[in-house]
Amino acid sequence: MAEQTAADILVESLIDWGVDTVFGIPGDGINGIIEALRKRQDDIRFIQTRHEESAALAACGHAKWTGRLGVCIATSGPGGLHLLNGLYDAKLDHQPVLTITGLPFHDMLHTQNQQDIELDKVFMDVAVYNNRVMGPSHVENTVDLACRTALAYRGVAHITMPVDVQSMSVDPKQRSERNVPGRASDLMAKSARLPDEDQLARAATILNAGRKTVILAGQGALGAGDKLIALAERLAAPIVKPLLGKATVPDDSPYTTGGIGLLGTRPSQEALEDCDTLLIAGSSFPYIEYYPKPDRARAVQVDLDPQCIGLRFPVEAGLVGDTGKVIDALLPRLDYREDRSFLDKAQAGMDEWNALMVERGTRDDKPMKPQVVAYELNKLLTDDAIVATDSGTITTWAARYLDMRGSRKFSCSGNLATMACGLPYAIAAAIAYPSRQVVCFIGDGGVSMLIGDLATCIKYDLDIKIVVIKNNTLGQIKWEQMVFLGNPEYVCDLQPIDFVTVARGFGVRAYGIDDPADCGGILREAFATRGPALIEATVDPHEPPMPPKATLKQATKFAQSLAKGSPAREKIALTVASDVVREIV
Fold first, then answer.
1. What is the spatial distance between Cα 564 and Cα 104, in angstroms, rounded to a whole number?
2. Type and span of the H or E element at 456
């Protein structure tokens, strides 16, 4: 039997921790680890991406979709550096990800050698655990602690290892006297995750005293949908869903008013403006301007992380624990609210909002509106669909038109809001759940950044449907320049790409849509085929992602941008005026 190497111990430790998938790109700085993965390929799968950023984003997506540890790997120097954007996505969205990188030869570090970048120093900010392996006897302890820390603190753990150390044989004589064999453990212990009794009593008093309560349910409330609905029924409280919490409760539930923020709904915004009590459940929604005025509402917050209590809004009771378990403990203490008028008003507002969304989603204007594509796509989603979207105006259309129901999953880059996450997230979903429908709903700016991973879809025969909204512009930046700053649009237009031709060059089936009359039929045809398919939907570049309630300041800034000479200002003004008229009427 061949002697075990340091890399063999690393891979065996990953398997012991239940890791079955690693995303990455091979390289000479990790050749020893790649060889160890080759030898255990029946137990742990290596998914080759076309960019290290894709690997890190896919690892983050894997963690989001499965709740388990996501793992990515890259070589020394530039390979490791390319991981950082995806790792920051995991850090800011509190996802457990382990990243493994290589280093140059141990005795050549910090001597201006090729690719001489000390990645453990580079990763100090992004990682909750960060360690350089010093020898074969150091591996097992390091991997165990890295995996445990990433899972326990829901963050990024980083292990880096010199390339020559990877191939060193394990020799018991190399152990220090304190490194006793068998002292490591792959056990992940979980706490009861229940809050303090005093805080529970305080929270119940605050909620029972309220008359107009809103529940703000984020990603920390995923999996607690039934309990959220029971809580909403008890308190006659609308459930407002920040984007990462979109799948907490079904969008057709009478208790939810949908999203909040620029891509949210009017009833959600009005509910938060008018509430006297706020229950924040598993959310650190960052846009504080959409919260109630601090002197207008009392607040209770539920979160696993004590550090997040009171982070966005002043709270009077902090319940540290799992959202579902906290609600179980809280419900018996809450009175049934007889006055349902606040909830009734929110529900009436949602009826009007949904009618407006249908009206916009069924328009037959040309150029085709992006809402039409999202509206037709929503009809094709199965009850177990997994939807990945990207950052930009595409996020607005996904938030407002792609409904959650059944066991559907939805995610995007939340607090980092990075572009290019959609396709790697979808790849991770298709790898983890090969029998489920996986949809990537993405903009042309985002998909073009990491378009090389269309090859990954083909290489692993992933059944992903990629719907590209093509407006040939960085739409979100364009509208931010105009509406928030009052500046003319500048350097946002994109050189057009024929995504149909490009996709076919990768071997991906591809379809094009530019007529709203054909939209539903072409989408159905594409979705009926097995395997990866790309649908390019060419839409009106001047269609704005209208905020749920436009403010006078936004209108003033928009008028200033037009007056200063925004390109195509006549078409933009006409489109915006048309949308406003439709909303008012």
1. 54
2. helix 454-459
Query: Which segment of 131-140, 211-220, 427-436 scores lowest on mean pLDDT?
Result: 131-140
pLDDT reading at 177 higher than 60: no
Q: What beta strand segments (E) does 104-211 contain?
A: 127-132, 156-162
Q: 6-16 and 31-39 helices cross at what angle (nearest 10)?
A: 50
Q: Which of 48, 45, 17 is nearest to 457 (CA)?
A: 48
Map residue 6 onto helix, strand or coil: helix
3-class SS of residue 415: coil
Strands (E), 115-166: 127-132, 156-162
Query: What would the pLDDT profile of 53-95 be if each residue is shown by its tens digit?
Result: 999 999 999 999 999 999 999 999 999 999 999 999 999 999 9
Q: Could you report the per-residue pLDDT of 551-579, keeping only the tens digit for each? A: 545 555 545 655 666 666 555 544 554 55
- Look up residue 386 and give its amino acid: I
pLDDT tens track for 38-47: 999 999 999 9
Residues 476, 393: contact at Cβ < 8 Å? yes
Structure tokens at 138: 């150091």
Residue in 104, 95, 113 with CA at minimum distance from that of residue 163:
104
Residue 295's CB is within 10 A of a number of other CB atoms, namely 6
Question: Is the separation of the CB atoms in 215 and 239 below 8 Å?
Answer: yes
Beta-carbon neighbour count of residue 582 at 10 Å? 13
Number of other residues whose CB lies within 10 A of the CB of residue 197: 9
% of the chain exceeding 70 in pLDDT: 90
Q: Going by C-beta distance under 8 Å and a sequence separation of 6 or more, which residues neighbour residue 112?
A: none
DSSP string computed for 232-281: HHHHT-PEE--GGGTTSS-TT-TTEEE--STTS-HHHHHHHHH-SEEEEE
Q: What is the DSSP letter of 154?
A: T
